[in-house]
Structure formats: structure tokens, C-alpha cells
Amino acid sequence: MAENKSTIPPQYDINAKWDACLDLTVRRFVYSSLGGAFGGLLLFRSPVTRWASVAFGAGLGIGSAYTECSQLFGGSPAKLAAPKLAETPAPQEGQD
């Protein structure tokens, strides 16, 4: 009486991807917030700047987790397009 278990290939297992992304996001948020708090305690005297360093660290953690998760789901994060330059010949001086 063997059970026929159908396994889902890893590239199609959305639940595993979401679990990995949530775990990654929480870990990076907490670790970077703690790093920002530690850096704020060492570098700043004002409570406002200390909280700002915590917020900056949290933003770095969430941003890096977003980038990693978007690659995990097969997409890429939004990229800025390079400005397109018009190809015009340079004016040549001295020609009559």
C-alpha cells in the first residue's frame, strides 16, 4: 500500500518560495535594524539620529530582501533605463 506522492519541482513550489522570502525578509530586517541601532549608539548622541540610523538599517534590510525575493520569483527588480542619445554628427569647424 504505497502512497503515490506527487512532488512539485522546486521552481514551481510557490509556498516554498514565499516561506523563503518571508524568512529572508524578517532576518534581514531584524539584523540590519540591530546593526543600525548599534551604529547609532556608537556614532550619535541625539535620540533622533539614533532612530534615523535604525530606520536606515531597516530600509537597507527590506530593500536587499526585496531584491533577493524578486530574483527568487524569476523576475528582476525594476531597472532604470539609460537615456537614449540622439546620434547627430558633430559640427566640423573650418569647412567652407
Automatic annotation (TrEMBL):
Function recorded in the entry: Component of the MICOS complex, a large protein complex of the mitochondrial inner membrane that plays crucial roles in the maintenance of crista junctions, inner membrane architecture, and formation of contact sites to the outer membrane.
Membrane topology type: Single-pass membrane protein
PANTHER family listed in its UniProt record: MICOS COMPLEX SUBUNIT MIC10 (PTHR21304)
Subcellular location: Mitochondrion inner membrane
Keyword GTP-binding: no
Keyword Transmembrane among UniProt keywords: yes
InterPro entries, A to Z: Mic10
GO-annotated cellular components: MICOS complex
Keywords: Membrane, Mitochondrion, Mitochondrion inner membrane, Transmembrane, Transmembrane helix
Entry similarity comment: Belongs to the MICOS complex subunit Mic10 family.
The protein's name: Uncharacterized protein
